[in-house]
Design brief:
- Strand 1 and strand 2 form a beta hairpin.
- The strands form 2 sheets. A 3-stranded antiparallel sheet has the order 1-2-3, covered by helices on one side. Strands 4-5-6 form a 3-stranded antiparallel sheet, with no helix packed on it.
- It is mostly helical.
- It has 14 helices and 6 strands.
- Helix 2 runs antiparallel to helix 4, helix 5 runs antiparallel to helix 6 and helix 12 packs antiparallel against helix 13.
- It has 3 domains: about 30 residues, no CATH class; about 90 residues, Tyrosine recombinase, N-terminal domain (DNA polymerase, domain 1); about 160 residues, hpI Integrase, Chain A, CATH 1.10.443.10.
- InterPro entries: DNA_brk_join_enz, Integrase-like_cat_sf, Integrase_catalytic, Tyrosine_recombinase_XerCD.
Length: about 350
């Protein structure tokens, strides 16, 4: 035979006898010799026909114990309380609860009835460097046990007794007039970056709504839409006039897509994709601490400085309560009150 066959290993023993082995998939088989003989070829064909690989063992997911936290999470994920949530909220909450089950030597295997406030509080304190993440964990566990109570799996909510960590009371940075001007100087009229700024600043909406705005939302010079957040559980329908400056930006910015702001391929942005793109636009302007959500706060602050009431501001932002609006506009309200107070003092001095 002139051609060397595959999977063969040939050596000689201490007596000078030739040994021929067939090796494949970690299995070694002795073949009769000599190499090229009828016996060798017969054994080789038999060995070649046999798949020596071990059968792949399918992983069988072990059903969690009915008393475990993981089992409770699985039931929650199947419930309407969970499936009625916004898909992004579902994704985030599932990730938090799955991480909760894996931490601290696989806490998910422990009985959910034995979880106490002190256990959650300890987990919260371990996350104290990241207060928003810690508070997100507490909120997710609260919702898990609310499900447990509603579906008669448990009669108490240990997470309700755990306090949230105090984060930054002001939240994300609110853009100043100077920062808006710096961004505009970097991104001229006609660019997608400039239109994105205008949409955020002159509508006061979240990025999940900004990415959806398009000609189909315009009716007689008004933006008519339902806010994306809470659209399944607490829908908010808004009608906002398109002011002249925003209309100018829309008119001069080329777009072949179905939305006002689009990717380089004329496709609509996803909410996260737009957030990443806007982050780059801010960085290009040297505004490393600014974000698209900060423009929503800036819009509310400007309205407050113009003397708009909380109800008027809520009619733009879509907030159902004044709690967030007050937080957004606290500085602007203080400025207005200070101006009013000192103007009265000046009038008395005259």
């Amino acid at each position: 035979m002139t051609r060397r066959l595959k999977y063969l290993a040939i050596d000689t023993d201490r007596h000078g006898n030739e040994r021929i082995y067939f090796r494949r998939h970690g299995v070694k088989t002795r073949l009769r010799g000599p190499y090229g003989s009828d016996e060798f070829l017969t054994d080789y064909q038999k060995a070649l026909a046999v798949d020596g690989r071990k059968p792949v063992q399918k992983k069988v997911c072990k059903e969690p114990e009915r008393t475990s936290i993981r089992w409770l999470c699985v039931q929650y994920f199947k419930s309407s309380m969970f499936t009625s949530l916004d898909p992004r909220t579902q994704k985030v909450r599932r990730a938090i609860l799955e991480k909760f089950c894996l931490n601290n030597n696989n806490d998910g295997t422990k009985p959910f009835a034995m979880l106490l406030p002190k256990h959650i509080r300890a987990r919260r304190d371990d996350m104290s460097e990241f207060p928003e993440a810690a508070n997100g964990m507490i909120k997710a566990v609260r919702q898990l046990y609310r499900f447990a109570i509603n579906y008669d799996h448990h009669d108490g909510n240990p997470a309700e007794k755990v306090e949230y960590l105090r984060g930054n009371p002001e939240g994300l940075h609110t853009w100043t007039i100077a920062e808006v001007a710096k961004y505009e100087a970097t991104h001229p009229v006609g660019t997608m970056a400039r239109l994105a700024l205008g949409l955020a600043l002159y509508t006061g909406q979240r990025r999940s709504d900004l990415v959806n705005f398009g000609p189909n939302h315009v009716q007689d010079g008004w933006l008519v839409f339902r806010q994306h957040k809470g659209r399944k559980t607490k829908p908010v329908h808004l009608e906002i006039p398109i002011i002249q400056e925003l209309q100018r930006l829309i008119d001069v910015t080329p777009s072949a897509g179905t939305t006002f702001i689009s990717t380089a391929f004329n496709k609509p942005f996803t909410s996260n994709g737009f957030g990443n793109r806007f982050r780059k636009w801010c960085d290009e302007a040297g505004l490393f601490h600014c974000s698209v959500h900060g423009l929503r706060k800036a819009a509310a602050s400007r309205l407050a400085e113009l003397g708009c009431t909380e109800q008027e501001i809520m009619a733009i932002t879509g907030h159902r309560t004044s709690k967030e609006v007050v937080r957004y506009t606290r500085a602007a309200s203080q400025k207005l009150r200070a101006k009013s107070a000192l103007s009265r003092m000046s009038s008395e001095a005259e």
